[in-house]
Write a structure and sequence with these properties.
By secondary structure, the protein is an all-alpha fold. It has a single domain, classed as 434 Repressor (Amino-terminal Domain), CATH 1.10.260.40. It is 64% helix and 0% strand. It has five helices and no strands. The protein is globular.
Length: 86
């Protein structure tokens, strides 16, 4: 039996696990990240992917790795393609 997992957009993780707990408004994130504002806004709104430039900027700001952010995107896309199956 296959396990079905919800597709979680990386923007949801950014918002719920980083911005909200830190009390960090999106507007501040736009100011501190060296990444295109449109790409960051689309990511937070769950309307766009994690791009290479955004992953590098998020990694630098939140002291994570760019691989962390790119892996979230890859896993999200994989689950979409597989209908949520592992």
């Amino acid at each position: 039996m296959k396990t079905v997992l919800q597709e979680i957009h990386p923007g949801e993780i950014l918002r719920d696990d980083f911005l909200v707990p830190l009390g960090l408004p999106e507007s501040v994130l736009f100011d501190v990240l060296e990444a295109p504002h449109e790409e960051v806004a689309a990511l937070i709104a769950e309307q766009g992917p994690v791009t290479a430039s955004v992953s590098l900027a998020l990694a630098s700001y939140f002291k994570t790795s760019s691989d962390f952010w790119m892996s979230l995107q890859a896993e999200y896309e994989r689950r979409l393609l597989n209908g949520g199956r592992q």
